[in-house]
């Protein structure tokens, strides 16, 4: 699996970066939404929501960059993956709508607070589940003929995609709980640590299950993970994961403030690396490599200039926005 | 074959529905973001807390409208892939990068600074907060720049080459693609439309509260600012619209023929049809009422200039006239009503009756939603007028859709309709409820005032929050924050 650094390869890494940023950043937003009903009404829930109210919109923008970037850099992949996962994509968008409006609507209408709490929870759950299932549908392969999707509209539904769906839901709850542990106070803080512990165990179980199931999907996946001698390199991913999980459980037990979240990010980064090892150089496994799906060189060059100049600026002001809202949240908002 | 047609039709309905719904929110938030920046700037410059009160009043409304714009916008960004996959594959090389630039330069800017704008006043202080407000306003404008560049390129494509397999690829330079022939006109016309939309909403809210209490200083200020905007910008918009129309005549003549209802060519001066029932099958305008030669006068600045009609365009390249004809008339009609209200407000100022002329206030209230209707009508005119193409003259709409089964598209369409009407209906209700509260001294969030009354700096909000009826007297400094 030699990697020649060409324009298309660079773009594959940029898209992977955007997707990763989305997964971890909106991941903790969605995780908090999924865990929301386990927090007590009133102060605890207000704290949990205010922990992400100033930043969720920026986090979600990475989804637009991931999708928009895929459209721009690999239009054919975009044109194949979205019709193939059509009902999932629509359900995800609707879930994100419920989740997004809940931030504003919840405060406007105290009498229907419970309804918006539910919308926040349910929208987050649907969005996370469908994102995981889209990942599963992609990994298990998509039927392509010529330049378009050639399967049925329920091909995405399989035990494997359900497994990845649940896996992402659980993984997001780990991010959400460990993020809240940093941000909230009082009983909610203790609750977040306990949730993080449970979510950590569940994430470990599901990550293991997905990792064991994936190599059986395609011959390529199997070879990547078990072929000698490259196994010596790729085996570092599960080994490192095991170490990170061990450190994660210790840091949760010791009630460390920042470490559980940072270690959860590490777990997700390794998951992403594992995904890359399986898929490379395919963007639609079994059908389209990144070069098959790539946009014309002029498009890629034009956008690369923008990314190279603007991305550092985006990262800088995003970091600044997080810095402004650093520390534990109070219940207040602009509301 | 029937199912193919149905899936295509459903996909078109779905796109039209989701984009029309979406467009309402950015049309409002582009103008409102700038208005907020002006209010905060005036507050910093003059130190008058009146401006800060107004800023906070409109900020709450902005937050709801912006959230609805964001979530409905994400749907739009994925619709190209879900429902228009063939279009995405064929035109993605050209328009994909422009949309990626929108994300990079606009969406992140808006989203990154929105949190500080909404929640950060106490954390970063007024000056840095003002910078965040400016960044959000700038973001809305940059977003309009890119998305209108994309849309304009689809209307007046240039700077592309066609690959052997029929894909549209960028040519040697991106400048002709971004700055395509209709882009400057469309950008100016749309951004002004967004400003007017906001002005009429602000004006209507001001008018409503003046009708309740004409001494309310906050209501006076917002009404006055909005009416200045209407009086000064509505004529500019009519001029910009006229120039946009001339540009369309040059590049998309069939669209103008449909707008004007010209099925037949007029070799010696075309009439301006005020009314008529377009009939595509018979290719004629029934019950036509027109003013002779005026259409030629407007479009060619010469009453006797010949104007070609749809009879010069093959039937399979004609847009559906009925929709374009009527949506255009709605837009133009509302534009002149806006101008009328703006002039009326000037008259009222001259007669010193701006704040005590209930008829004017009722008219302004009635005109509150006019911007939204005009924006949607204009959007329909330009989009339906482009049919039957997605990329004008090159790629047909019928050849752009995803290979999807009709039931899948029907189910998703039903889901969008249900969710949009329910959620955005509720959101609009919340906005209206916020607007129904009079703006007052020491403006705070509605949620806080409902849960616990707030007393600030010795001023207790009561039924009448204003210090007195004299015009120009400002609330005490330090009343807010």
Structure in words:
The complex is a heterodimer of chains A (335) and B (481). Chain A is globular, with a radius of gyration of 20 Å. The N and C termini of chain A lie far apart (53 Å). In chain A, helix 7 runs antiparallel to helix 8 (187-213) and helix 11 runs antiparallel to helix 12 (259-279). In chain A, the strands form two sheets. Chain A has a two-stranded antiparallel ribbon. In chain A, strands 3-4 form a two-stranded antiparallel sheet. With 335 residues, chain A is mainly α. Chain A contains 14 helices and four strands. In chain B, helix 2 (49-82) runs antiparallel to helix 13. Helices cover 67% and strands 6% of the residues of chain B. The chains are: A mainly alpha (335), B mainly alpha (481). At the A-B interface, helix 3, helix 4, helix 5, strand 2 and helix 14 of A face helix 2, helix 3, helix 4, helix 13 and helix 14 of B.
CA-based shape of chain B? globular
Apparent shape of chain A: globular
- The strand count of chain A comes to 4
Specify the number of helices of chain B.
14
Share of helix of chain B, binned: 55-70%
Mean pLDDT of chain A: 90
Provide a quick synopsis of the model.
Chain A contains 14 helices and four strands. Chain A is mostly helical and 335 residues long.
Layout of strands and helices, then pairs:
The complex is a heterodimer of chains A (335) and B (481).
Chain A lengths: L6 H29 L7 H8 L5 H18 L1 H10 L1 H23 L4 H27 L4 E2 L2 E2 L9 H25 L3 H27 L5 H8 L4 H4 L1 H18 L5 H21 L2 E3 L3 E2 H4 L3 H28 L11
Antiparallel strand pairs in A: 1-2, 3-4
Chain B lengths: L1 H45 L2 H34 L2 H35 L1 H35 L4 E3 L5 E3 L4 H4 L4 H30 L4 H35 L1 H8 L11 E8 L4 E8 L2 H7 L20 H30 L7 H9 L3 H15 L4 E3 L3 E2 L9 H31 L9 H6 L30
Antiparallel strand pairs in B: 1-2, 3-4, 5-6
Helix pairs in contact in B: 1-2, 1-4, 1-6, 1-12, 1-13, 2-3, 2-13, 3-4, 4-6, 6-7, 6-11, 6-12, 7-8, 7-10, 8-10, 10-12
């Amino acid at each position: 699996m030699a990697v020649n650094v060409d324009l298309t390869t660079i773009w594959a890494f940029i898209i992977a970066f955007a997707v990763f940023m989305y997964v971890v950043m909106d991941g903790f937003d969605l995780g908090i939404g999924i865990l929301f009903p386990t927090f007590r009404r009133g102060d605890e829930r207000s704290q949990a929501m205010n922990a992400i109210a100033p930043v969720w919109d920026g986090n979600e923008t990475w989804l637009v960059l991931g999708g928009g970037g895929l459209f721009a850099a690999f239009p054919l992949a975009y044109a194949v993956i979205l019709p193939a996962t059509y009902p999932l994509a629509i359900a995800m968008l609707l879930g994100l709508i419920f989740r997004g409006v809940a931030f504003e609507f919840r405060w406007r209408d105290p009498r229907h607070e419970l309804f918006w709490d539910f919308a926040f929870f349910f929208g987050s759950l649907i969005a996370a589940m469908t994102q995981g299932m889209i990942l599963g549908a992609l990994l298990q392969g998509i039927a392509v003929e010529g330049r378009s999707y050639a399967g049925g509209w329920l091909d995405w539904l399989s035990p494997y995609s359900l497994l990845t769906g649940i896996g992402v839901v659980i993984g997001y709850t780990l991010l959400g709980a460990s993020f809240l542990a940093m941000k909230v106070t009082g009983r909610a803080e203790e609750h977040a640590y306990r949730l993080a512990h449970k979510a950590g165990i569940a994430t470990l179980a599901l990550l293991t299950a997905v990792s064991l199931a994936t190599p059986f999907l395609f011959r390529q996946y199997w070879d990547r993970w078990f072929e000698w001698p490259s196994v010596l390199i790729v085996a570092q991913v599960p080994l490192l994961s095991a170490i990170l999980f061990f450190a994660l459980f210790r840091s949760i037990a010791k009630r460390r403030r920042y470490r559980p979240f940072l270690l959860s990010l590490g777990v997700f980064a390794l998951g992403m690396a594992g995904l890359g090892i399986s898929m490379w150089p395919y963007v639609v496994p079994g059908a389209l490599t990144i070069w098959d799906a790539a946009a014309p060189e002029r498009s890629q060059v034009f956008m690369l200039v923008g990314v190279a100049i603007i991305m550092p600026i985006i990262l800088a002001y995003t970091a600044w926005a997080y810095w402004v809202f650093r520390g534990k949240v109070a219940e207040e908002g602009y509301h | 074959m029937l199912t193919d047609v149905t899936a295509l039709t459903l996909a078109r309905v779905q796109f039209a529905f989701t984009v029309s719904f979406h467009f309402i929110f950015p049309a409002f938030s582009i103008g409102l973001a700038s208005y907020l920046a002006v209010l905060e700037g005036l507050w910093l410059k003059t130190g008058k807390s009146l401006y800060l009160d107004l800023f906070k009043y409109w900020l709450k409304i902005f937050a709801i409208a912006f959230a609805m714009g964001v979530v409905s916008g994400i749907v739009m960004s994925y619709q190209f892939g879900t429902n228009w996959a063939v279009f995405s594959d064929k035109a993605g090389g050209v328009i994909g990068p422009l949309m990626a630039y929108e994300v990079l330069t606009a969406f992140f800017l808006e989203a990154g600074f929105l949190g500080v704008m909404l929640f950060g006043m106490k954390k970063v202080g007024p000056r840095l907060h003002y910078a965040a407000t400016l960044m959000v306003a700038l973001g809305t404008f940059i977003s309009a720049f890119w998305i209108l560049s994309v849309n304009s390129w689809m209307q007046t494509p240039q700077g592309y080459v066609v690959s052997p397999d029929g894909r549209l690829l960028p040519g040697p330079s991106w400048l002709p693609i971004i700055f395509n022939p209709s882009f400057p006109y469309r950008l100016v016309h749309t951004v002004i439309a967004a400003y007017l939309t906001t002005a009429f909403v602000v004006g209507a809210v001001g008018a409503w509260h003046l009708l309740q209490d004409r001494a309310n200083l906050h209501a006076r200020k917002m009404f006055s600012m909005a009416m200045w905007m209407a009086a000064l910008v509505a004529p500019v918009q009519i001029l910009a619209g006229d120039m946009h129309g001339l540009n369309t005549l040059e590049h998309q003549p069939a669209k103008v023929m449909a707008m004007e209802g010209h099925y037949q060519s007029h070799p010696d001066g075309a009439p301006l049809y005020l009314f008529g029932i377009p009939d595509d099958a018979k290719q004629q305008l029934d019950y036509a009422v027109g003013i002779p030669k005026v259409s030629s006068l407007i479009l060619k600045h010469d009453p006797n200039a010949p104007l070609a009609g749809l009879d010069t365009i093959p039937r399979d390249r004609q847009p559906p006239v009925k929709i374009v004809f009527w949506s255009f008339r709605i837009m133009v009609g509302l534009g002149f009503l806006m101008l009328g209200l703006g002039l009326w407000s000037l008259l009222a100022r001259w007669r010193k009756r701006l704040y005590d002329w209930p008829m004017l206030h009722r008219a302004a209230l009635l005109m509150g939603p006019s911007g939204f209707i005009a924006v949607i009508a204009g959007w329909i005119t330009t989009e339906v007028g482009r049919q039957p193409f997605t990329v004008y003259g090159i790629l047909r709409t019928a050849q752009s859709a995803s290979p999807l089964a009709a039931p899948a598209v029907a189910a998703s369409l039903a889901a969008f309709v249900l969710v949009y009407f329910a959620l955005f209906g509720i959101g609009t209700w919340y906005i209206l409820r916020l607007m129904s509260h009079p703006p007052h001294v020491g403006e705070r969030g509605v949620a806080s005032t409902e849960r616990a009354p707030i007393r600030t700096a010795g001023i207790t909000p009561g039924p009448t929050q204003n210090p007195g009826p004299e015009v120009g007297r400002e609330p005490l400094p330090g009343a807010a924050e």
